[in-house]
Design goal:
heterotetramer, A: 325 residues, Rossmann fold, five-stranded mixed beta sheet, 20% strand, globular, B: alpha/beta, 2 domains, binds thiamine diphosphate, binds magnesium ion
Chain lengths: 325, 359, 325, 359
């Protein structure tokens, strides 16, 4: 166990994978000499060489396309996209190729590419350094979509991703890259996909969140506790595959649900959770399902604190949901 | 389990610089087989026995010349028009017809339109439709081969129109920077569906585009199997010697429609077509073979006959192969089915059992 | 009024716009000499010239990027993407530029680009000529997303799109391009955005559908009528902006909802509809919300008839929903 | 309502081939103003008075030389580093500082990070962050200008790294095919964040990439305002004469960090930096002006003083400008708010009123 920040945990996961598996390599913009613009790959090129930690030209199409070729050949590429906002030039490769290779080849060509990328707001990044577009990828059959919310999960889920047989989009909540420190197991620590974590038990309302919204949700739950509202906070971690069981079990218990994410509401990931409840837990629901999300606008700069869901807004929604009948 | 193909002998691992005289007849046989199968497939499509088809006529010499210059261990990243490459590679007509039909023998499991196939054991990577995406894959695979120190090249196939794609730019740029052992084999057939080359790019030719990436580009007469073979063999030798990638522009002409959905008379003249028909690569090679005494008219007829018989046999077998099972659509989305997908599979099976869905 | 197929109606809308507004132009692959691979632009280049009906090189990035530049300059470009499946090379332009130009410029630069593209299955197109990825775009603030289901709407909505001030993704259900003929008003016929159409009234279950699923939904409703189940069929037409009122009013009446689309279920557009109901119509719901959708796999070729929702599957879901309690 | 700028006289509509001697001092004044403002902004960022900043030092001559060769009616599509272009264009320091602060004077309405601005009335199009996207826009706008028969050119700015982008390829290809009046102005500052030019592309230089698209590419010394001006004026004349686009590679050096988030010592040597500092474009032009008797040392000091005073005044005004109202985030998503968005605005206002959200 070592105390690490989230970005350090990512770095340690990469280090572990590079150390133990010669097929693992890293590629992306500024990942080598510079150690990544968030320092996630700091020190790795020095240790593993520029053939395993590869600085690429400025082309996300090229990064993901090349990673696909490497994966087809048998390597385990970990591609970094500098910001999720810049993943779109690679969208064709991701949607048409990464996600569909295994399927279209009848299982002949697995395409185990890991794409790591920092996502989300809270760093004053404006429209193009703040987006949370996980819903695009969650809607793309063939991809797995993972979002850690703490250092230990970041390491454990990333190592699982690198050794998974399927392609994984690994979204790193950059806002909490350095704000939280936590104990992280040394060595080949793995956290399985498809398992949500109950971060706080509660009987009154279920709060579903992931990534950088987790600390906000927990803070909200703690504030409400003094008011006599016991919120259960569930960290989804694995958006695809989703731990449906955990979601349904919690709502069957509480009868109430608040869903939290940074992304715009309309057709966001929260819509799927709410739909799941409307389909499979309708008779348990005692109150309308609430979504606390970014607004249906692009991400603003000066006013990001208005746009981003915070603990107060979450608490307000939980309170309202707890009282509704 | 490698497939038993009745096609002519595929190339040996060691590839000489020039197509030797004794391989010329092999080349011709592959071209005859490709042409024969192509014609049959066009008919099958018209008859509704396959749903769609992309013909290759006019491009046989380019494809066979290229494929014969490669070793079986070289990785091929095709577009959708490379029937002759597949045949040279040893992929049998039966296997291809299974794919065109989408039956239970189709290793793509009926998931793709005809012409979108691939077979790992032949190092022939499964194609997709979006143009160009295979180009960056070929570069990435070449980087992987470099890392593994495997003495192979990767070859990607694409058309003139595809030089405008994002992946062309990204792929060639990465190849230049990382000096990958990659051959970019562009079949310039002068059209991207209806768009003529002059409207696709204002560059004097396509090979010159390699300059932008710092490696050689070569124009070659794609109607001549020998020139193509030489160009590819040279590019391959350079790549294996660590001298990096090559862009080869094989100038050909698509004699038929873009696909069975296309009507080329809308965008090109009969005169132009006639001019190119006169340069038919099969007629040209046959003429050379006759002239060099490597072929007699009667033997030629026999070759065509054998090809027809082979295709007929393969077709009968493919059409007798049972259909694919409906619930197979839930396989291979992931290495194993997540619970929600398994639930959908079960639901689908129930709907099939209840007759709500037809198999 | 003229009897037209859906694709003819699209053609007439384009003709009308080109005739009446010199700022309108069309660009795309094979739209000129060839008249479009589905013949949607047939005859237009001949009539309006190759400077207004422009055959472009094979680059969706270029098509949409150039259209943006034209729109900024003041023209009204109508870009064709040959198949929705091939829109992804332009995804960066669409998500980062088209959708956000007005916002990021503080309203200085509207970006009224129309992107028309055939979508959906049913023509044996396999993975790459069948997709319905409307959810990606519906989740992108700044875009409007429109899907007609009949010739008159196709013309009226497309003309509204061309003269709208905002960017519009106009999805044409290619499967019914030619299968339905209908009366289409001549001239400058416009159908407003944001208004769903009640195609069939019913008291028992609300069925929400759009595009090529409409005929299937109507067929299902008609079959059920004899069983005594009266389904109300609502054609959403305008996915963004959504006619929330119509959706809620119908479910308040019926208490039951079945949502139909071709796209995969997970995080599909239907999720938003279900979420809306879970949020704003929970107390009206007498039965779980059902979604009849494509499965969460890529789109298959040989078995597309198993994958695609059909009238029988819709009827089955409506029947089940009508009986649930 | 055009903005009153205190900056030196912007260029007239008619642009001569060579930068006339009497404009040289103007060029220098713009460069001094840009450098002064740049230094102030770096300080402001360190002091936390603005959130982020992208400096331009080293690239002033290229930018001013280019901008002075354009007419106000020409459309500019910037990246994020073109402070000097904006100043030449007549966009005032106050207006820019409003944007960097994101206050109620910011015409971008506080929505964008610093450096991402644009002003329709100055034909200076609002920038975004994804690199390269402005390149195809410039081409599309040029096609529109062609159609309208407007005698203008469009100019897009981008860096060496951006030549690897999808839009570079698509944009230059379209420009070649449609012969658009577009100037592709590449400031090759030798780095894309940390990636040096040699790893960005294997092409011998960047200008040669134009060959792939069938139009001229020109390399120019970007540290020399006169050479840049000449190259741009020539390209502009060609474009207006219907002779199509030009790619100009201005070879410069970024003397500072990529942005205030960057530490260039991680990827380049002090020696390299020192070598380029010796070529500082301001020092060079000052030297020439002194030599030609167009400037005296004392007048130079006065220029710097005036620039500092102008920036100080603008800053005071900008910092005194009230903040933007919170509910403005719901404007401009669409031309008018759809009902659901209006509902969210109302919800947001209520949350603000209840103190759940802070303004
Ligand atoms: C990204 C993308 N856009 C459009 C299409 C539709 N399309 C299929 S083939 C083709 C033309 C390709 O031309 P070329 O590269 O010259 O190859 P050819 O078909 O002539 O062999 C087009 C536009 C596609 N498959 N992918
Ligand atoms: C598509 C995209 N990918 C990555 C980035 C992150 N990024 C911002 S600037 C930059 C380097 C750009 O280099 P260059 O084009 O040389 O311009 P310079 O910054 O040197 O002026 C990168 C990688 C981005 N903005 N957009
Ligand atoms: Mg072609
Ligand atoms: Mg640079």
């Amino acid at each position: 166990m070592t105390d690490l920040t989230l970005v350090q945990a990512v770095n340690r996961a990469l280090h572990e994978a590079l150390s133990t598996d010669p097929d693992v390599l890293i590629l992306g913009e500024d990942v080598g000499v510079n150690g990544g613009v968030f320092r996630a790959t700091e020190g790795l090129q020095k240790e593993f060489g520029s053939e395993r930690v590869i600085d690429t030209p400025l082309s996300e199409t090229g990064i993901v396309g090349a990673a696909v070729g490497m994966a087809l050949y048998g390597l385990k590429p970990v591609a970094e996209i500098q910001f999720l906002d810049f993943i779109y030039p690679a969208f064709d490769q991701i949607v048409s190729e990464v996600a569909k290779f295994r399927y279209r080849s009848g299982g002949q060509y697995p395409c185990h590419v890991v794409i790591r990328t920092p996502y989300g707001g809270g760093i004053k990044g404006g429209l193009y350094h703040s987006q949370s577009s996980e819903a695009y990828f969650a809607h793309t059959a063939g991809l797995k979509v993972i979002v850690p919310s703490n250092p230990a999960d970041a390491k454990g889920l990333l190592l699982t991703a690198i050794h998974d047989e399927d392609p994984v989009l690994f979204l790193e909540p950059k806002r909490i890259y350095r704000s939280v420190t936590g104990e992280v197991p040394d060595g080949d620590h793995r956290v399985p996909f498809g398992q949500a974590a109950t971060v706080r038990e509660g009987s009154d309302v279920s709060v579903f969140a992931y990534g950088a919204m987790l600390p906000q949700a927990v803070q909200a739950a703690e504030a409400l506790s003094s008011e006599g509202v016991q919120a259960e906070v569930i960290d989804l971690r694995s958006l695809v595959p989703l731990d449906e069981k955990a979601v349904l079990a919690s709502v069957e218990k509480t009868g109430r649900a608040v869903i939290v994410h940074e992304a715009p509401r309309f057709c966001g990931y929260g819509a799927e959770l709410a739909a799941l409840l409307a389909e499979k837990a309708l008779y348990s629901l005692k109150a309308p399902v609430a979504r606390v999300t970014g607004f249906d606008t692009p991400f603003p700069y000066a006013l990001e604190h208005v746009y981003l869901p915070n603990a107060e807004r979450i608490a307000h929604a939980v309170r309202t949901t707890a009282r509704a009948s | 389990m490698p497939d038993e193909s009745t096609a002519p002998t595929p190339p040996a691992a060691e590839v000489p610089g020039e197509l030797p005289r004794d391989r010329l007849l092999d080349a011709y046989r592959f071209m005859v087989l490709a042409r024969t199968m192509d014609e049959r497939c066009l008919t099958l499509q018209r008859q509704g026995r396959i749903g769609f088809y992309v013909p290759l006529q006019g491009q046989e010499a380019a494809q066979v010349g290229c494929a014969l210059a490669l070793a079986p261990s070289d990785w091929i990243f095709p577009a959708y028009r490379e029937l002759a490459v597949a045949l040279v590679r040893g992929i049998s007509p039966k296997l291809l017809l299974d794919q065109f039909i989408g039956n239970s023998g189709d290793e793509m499991k009926g998931r793709q339109m005809p012409n979108h196939y691939g077979y790992r054991r032949f190092n022939y990577v499964t194609a997709s439709s979006p143009v160009g995406t295979q180009i960056t894959h070929a570069v990435g695979a070449a980087m992987a081969a470099q890392r593994r120190k495997d003495p192979i090249v990767t070859v990607c196939f694409f058309g003139d129109g595809t030089t405008s794609s994002n992946d062309f730019h990204a792929g060639l740029n990465f190849a230049g920077v990382f000096r990958t052992p990659t051959i970019f084999f562009c079949q310039n057939n002068r059209y991207a569906i209806s768009l003529p080359l002059e409207r696709q790019t204002h560059s004097p030719n396509l090979a010159v585009k390699a300059t932008a990436y710092g490696f050689p580009g070569v124009v070659v007469d794609g109607m001549d199997v020998v020139s193509v073979h030489t160009a590819v063999a040279e590019a391959r030798a350079r790549a294996l010697a660590g001298e990096g990638p090559t862009l080869i522009e094989a100038q050909v002409y698509r004699l038929g429609p873009h696909s069975t959905s296309d009507d080329p008379r809308r965008y090109r003249s009969d005169a132009e077509l006639a001019e190119w028909k006169a340069k038919d690569p099969l007629a040209r090679l046959k003429h050379d073979l006759l002239a060099q005494g490597l072929l007699e008219e009667s033997a030629d007829a026999g070759l065509w006959e054998a090809a027809r018989a082979e295709v007929t046999k393969a077709l009968a077998e493919a059409e007798a192969t049972p259909p694919i099972t409906p619930e197979s659509i839930f396989d291979d989305v992931y290495a194993s089915r997540p619970p929600a997908l398994e639930e959908q599979r079960v639901e689908c099976l129930r709907l099939l059992q209840e007759g709500i869905l037809k198999p």
